[in-house]
Each structure stands twice: as C-alpha cells, then as structure tokens.
Design a protein that fits this description.
The chain is an all-alpha fold. It has a domain of 63 residues: Homeodomain-like (Arc Repressor Mutant, subunit A), CATH 1.10.10.60. 66% of the residues lie in helices and 0% in strands. It has five helices and no strands. The longest helix is centred in the C-terminal third of the chain and has 26 residues. It is extended and about 60 Å long. It is found in: Nucleus. Belongs to the POU transcription factor family. Class-6 subfamily.
Length: 95
C-alpha cells in the first residue's frame, strides 16, 4: 500500500500505472475476406479441418493474408462447426 501511495504522490494517477500493469494493447482491425478467398478457405476446410502449418502458410501466401489470420480463420471455423453440431443435437433430443 505504501508503494501505491508513493506512486500516487509522484503523479502516477492512472489506475494501470497504479497497480503496475501495462496498458492494454490496441486490437487489430477485423479482417475482411474476399468472396474468392472464402470460397478457397471453405473448400480447403471441407477436405481438411486441421491443416498443417505448411498448408496454412501456403494458403496465406496464395490468398495474400497473414499466416496468423488464416490460422485463426480455421480455429473459428472449427468452433462454429462444433457449436452448430451441439445446437443441432440439443434441438433433436427430447427434454
């Protein structure tokens, strides 16, 4: 507590500085995929839901997106599929 009081007296009035945390980094803008890129990604996903690192890198170069963006797209697509399957199975089971 003494350290916090000293920091406050020295002009560190920002709460993040007060507790010793770094301010949060700005989020990256949401990526917009072209319809052509989505077609290629969806086709690839139908064949393989878990592409290797090399496949992700190849797709990223082919489509002109960062590797991490493509990796996250596959993660999100798998999660969406999982959620869809869960919702469909929940809807068909009697309660």
């Amino acid at each position: 507590m003494k350290e916090a009081e000293d920091r406050f007296k020295n002009g560190h009035q920002n709460l993040n500085e007060f507790v010793g945390m770094e301010p949060s980094k700005k989020r990256k803008r949401r990526t917009s995929f072209t319809p052509q890129a989505l077609e290629i990604l969806n086709t690839h996903f139908e064949r393989n839901t878990h592409p290797s690192g090399a496949e992700i890198t190849t797709l990223a170069h082919q489509l002109g997106y960062e590797r991490e963006v493509i990796r996250i797209w596959f993660c999100n697509k798998r999660q969406a599929l999982k959620n869809t399957v869960r919702m469909m199975s929940k809807g068909s089971s009697p309660m």
